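This section describes the prediction task in plain terms. A model, or a person checking by hand, is given the sequence of a single protein chain and must write out its three-dimensional structure as a string of tokens. No templates, partner chains or ligands are provided. The sample shown here is typical of the held-out split.
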Amino acid sequence: MGIKLQLLDKENKIYLLDDDNFDFPSLDMMDDDLVALGGDFHPQRLINAYKNGLFPWFIDELGYIHWYSPQKRMVLKPDEFRLTKSLKRVIKNKGFKIKSNQNFEAVIKNCATIKRKDEDSSWIDDNFIKAYSYLYEIGYAYSIECYLDNELVGGLYGVMIDDIFCGESMFSKVSNASKVVFYHLCDQAKQNGIRLIDCQVYNEHLKSLGAYEITRDEYFRYLKGSL
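The expected answer:
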């Protein structure tokens, strides 16, 4: 059976997801960055979303989840991380300790509550925390944590789809903690055969670490294993 989704906006091709199945629009059905509305956070729906190049960004005031597949996708190949001399010194001398998957819930909750420049509130609400914590429990979501003097001062989390790590969010409570965490993500990615880190949308901080934009078509070729 083919995908049957209600088209809400014919001009921009925005679809209403069917509550009875976990289908998502295919690449040839997409137009703008916002692709679909609705559905829920059933784990199979979330996994299908990432497998089809989409991710949920926020829930609107009517309770609809907004699903995105950016026309320009921010990505980074693990071996192209930009390791500066100053960051090398920080990694060696600052005293940060890195752990993986030891405190996922604390990481996502910090990502939800940390104050960010030019943001009044976070899109990571209790629905996101519950959904991604369950993905962690079943082995699809992962976290990397940065500790200083036994205190969690930085971290990131994301979803693993085959050999692509789909980064969701990161936080930092002290200078350079997020850079150190991202460095260790790339290092672990190289050790475990991860080809690409999906950073989703453009960010100056990630650009400074070596990330860059590719087209949506190119990202889908990575997803399908043809690049």
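For orientation: The chain has two domains: 6-69, 74-223.
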